Amino acid sequence: VQDAASGQDPRPVGDEGSRWRWKEEICQILGEIQAPLSSLLLRLCHWLLPKLLTRLFLSVQLHRGQLEMVLRAARTPEVPLVFLCSHQSQVDGLLLSFVLLSQGVGLPRVAVGARTSPRLRSLLQRLGGIFLPSGMAQTWSDRDKGLPAAVLDAYIQEVLRSRQPLVLFLEEPSASLRLADPARLWLLRLLRALQDGAVPDILVVPVGIAYDVAP
């Protein structure tokens, strides 16, 4: 992050005004990625979600054998879990988060790639959603450069080190089976975390969600 900041500001590293501006910009980028989790909202959603799900679905079925393998993987010391998911509906993130939390895997950080309104973005951030910083919503040639990309790399490495489960959706809902642009950027973060030695390994769990009728 320091290298990226100094690369866009030619003044000496020891300049106090320059360092203060870096810190302000870095905090702003972090605020776009995440927000502090709200325990009140989490408890409210944990109470509301079963009521919502029973109205949306006649039943929710899990493969018990696969769930047992995920629970065993979650007990692997010092190795984070990353769930790579197909994306069929806008409720996928809520459904998967509820299942993982109710099974004792933990509250996941869910990468959200779709454009959302500021109010919805703020709500999802407080429930564990993470977003790409606005500085990375540019052309492909510029997306992976500069301070926003460096801060995002550092952020994902800290999420992995703390062994918070991470959920990445590989496609946009109702789109063709093609890797979405935001998914490419998130996956690159994981690859760099391994290359930089931030974590010794990552356990990748493929997740398929299917509906008789998608909500």
Please give a handful of descriptors for the protein shown.
10% strand, 215 residues, alpha/beta, single chain
Protein model, in words:
With 215 residues, the protein is of the alpha/beta class. The chain has one domain (23-57, 64-207). The protein is built from 9 helices and 5 strands, in the order ααααβαβαβααβαβ. The chain has helices spanning 2-7, 16-33, 39-56, 64-74, 92-102, 118-126, 140-143, 146-161, 181-195, and strands at residues 81-85, 109-112, 129-131, 166-169, 203-207. A 5-stranded parallel beta sheet has the order 3-2-4-1-5. Helix 6 links the parallel strand 2 (109-112) and strand 3. Helix 8 packs across helix 9 (181-195). The chain is globular and about 60 Å long. The mean pLDDT is 84.
